[in-house]
Amino acid sequence: MHPSLLLLLLSLLILLPFSAASPPPFQRYPLPSARRSTIPPQTQIEVTRPLPFDALTPACTLPLFNHTFAHTSGLPPSAANYSAPLNCTWSNAVLHFSAAANGTQVDRIAAVWLAGAELLRTSTPESTPDGVSWSFTKDVTRFSALLSRKNLSLSVMLENTVDEFYTGAFDVNITFLFYNIKNSSIHNRRSLNSSPRKIIRNQRRQSAAINASLELDQIPADLIIPVSAAGEEGYWFKIQTGNDAVYQGIQIPNNTYRAVIEVFVSAHGDDEFWYTNPPDFYIESNGLNITLGHGVYREVLVTLDDNVVGSVLPFPVIYTGGINPLFWDPIVAIGAFNLPSYEIELTPFLGILLDDKKHYFGFGVADAISFWLVDANLHLWLDDGPVKVQAGPIKYKNPNNCVERESSFAQLNGKFETEGERKTEFSGWVYSSAGNLTTSVTTKLEFENEINYKSNGTIVKVEHEVKVKKQIQISLPSSGTVASFSVESKYPLELKTTSVAGSGPDNYLVSTELEVSYQEEKKIDHFQSKLTNKQECSGWMFVHGEDVLSGAGATSQTYTVKDSLGCYSRKVSADEGAVVSDNENFLCSAGVVSGSSA
């Protein structure tokens, strides 16, 4: 990722009190080295729930990738040959990512692909001459169809710049851990062998077909097809404007009985903090010399043959240089190491796809400015029985969205409100060895954003919230609903920034308060779960010209998940670059979600 803005609000705060001849906006710069030199380098962490099999010994371990990313700007991804481990029976797979850097460096975006399918999107911490290190794991069992193969290319993209100022290089290691989970209380999955195997046994076909429509991790797909770019500059598509549209033609096997597209997306450059962007008319009216703008509404659209079949309102992942870089040392922002992917059920559209022809999957980002990185994986479940798979549509509700905007401003003071909503309803039938199953998918997306500028633009407050409701039902003509899945998620963000002019030219004291969270409630038949992940941050920066000279940041995070398999909570606080408290609990308290594993 080329150096983007240090933070959108900081650029506005610097520019707003001035005319169009103001100095250029701040760019992203590393942590002040004077601050870090007094603190021993620490391991950076992203707070999340440990994987259920972390305490188990892997059935086999595959160290695969070791590379130093120095000056890699403009170069293709680095690659290694992947083959599944021999003589290893496994049911679950984990990607272990570890890295370190020495020298001054800003955060960079990175991704890992296997045969062109994205396994992981991540970002790096900022680094000073004192160095930085970090590691994390990701459950990649959903990619079993790829991980069980041999002679595939594992590609890693980390576009880094090394020069007289940015001196840091990133040493990256990737290892795959394979586990054989026999205890169904940990996870109800079948064992896989490294050799090609049949995913679905005939005697289990109907049960598997039904349960497969619940979550990708329960019964992984039989085939994964990447929907991605050529790979010379990474396998992601780069979207520069709201008018950009990218496509890939794919013909799927005619024995497919279920399809899901998994979308990876990240925002960069002028749109990195899209949820704080002012409208263009505000910028033009005040003669501001900034490239940010186009308002706050962004929606990632997924199309099939130019028809919208789903969309994503992205979670606002904050990279480690964002808002105030001192917030994210050593606790990084939610999703910074493991950016979320988004799943869209395409089974109702198999009536279109199962015609032995190529169909075009496309992506766009509504109202985007430069730039967004988007790609996807198409997960397909195949029927290996004697029955010819047939499919047809039942219902397609045109997924029109509604966006309303209100504004009121006088010079640099003003208030801007944006609300958006999209509701989709799709259903279709699939006749396979499992019977005649109807899959119905209902999704509702809601968006609210309000930006207030006060005190001649030196005080900026942003309130941003997205709500997502999704429900999937599978039914048989004879017995009605046989399986269901529902999830409700919400991710609010509140941000307040105040700037005060310093005694000298181009000197500013900027104080910031931030609260961001991800909340999710999920139901899969009798299985229920509830997740709350919340961060609260406060701090200040003293800025001269384009340099952050000094500052402070404090972050507290509460992560709580309760489900039918147990509970986990962790509360961590950091101040001045050091963890001051860290409490972890695996015990359930009152109000635990009840139920049994599906």
TrEMBL record:
Q: What is this protein called?
A: Peptide N-acetyl-beta-D-glucosaminyl asparaginase amidase A N-terminal domain-containing protein
Q: Name one Pfam family in it.
A: PNGaseA
InterPro entries, alphabetically? PNGase_A (IPR021102), PNGaseA_N (IPR056948)
Q: Which domain of life, per UniProt? A: Eukaryota
User: To which species is this protein native?
Assistant: Salvia splendens (Scarlet sage)
Q: Nuclease as a keyword?
A: no
Position of the signal peptide: 1-21
Q: Which UniProt keywords apply?
A: Signal
Q: Where's the Peptide N-acetyl-beta-D-glucosaminyl asparaginase amidase A N-terminal domain?
A: 58-396
